[in-house]
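User: Please predict the structure of the protein below. I'd like the answer in structure-token form so I can feed it into my own downstream comparison script.

Assistant: Understood. Taking the following sequence of 140 residues as input:
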Amino acid sequence: MRIQDLRPNEGATKDRRRLGRGPGSGLGKTGGRGGKGQTARSGSSIRAGFEGGQTPLYRRLPKRGFTNVHALEVFALNLRDVEPYIEAGVLDAAAVAGDKTIVKLLSVGDVPKSLKKIRGIRVSGTTRDKLSAAGVKIEE
């Protein structure tokens, strides 16, 4: 066997498509490019949102609002939903929502009997009154 006798395995290679070579090839006339016009030409690329020269939708609609890059995510938590987050009588912000979120405790519901201390959680005015009446210590 010599190097010139080496051939790819049967079925490993495929002939390239020869476009525009007559109707018998199945790829004659338009050569697989659809009809006539801009997209049938070589090098054609139409950017996203282009509407053929008509003012595109993204320019017809008004601009509204903005995104505040400094906004903090606030996780609202009601007193009635606190029970699963209490560990050894302490309600901790890290146990509720992790480090990057502010947790605010709201007054819907009653103060759980197992709650003794709150750490690192913001508290609404009404909730503060309920907690102080129940003897819960607040560390912010």
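That's the full token string. Residues 74-139 form a domain with the Ribosomal Protein L15; Chain: K; domain 2 fold (CATH 3.100.10).
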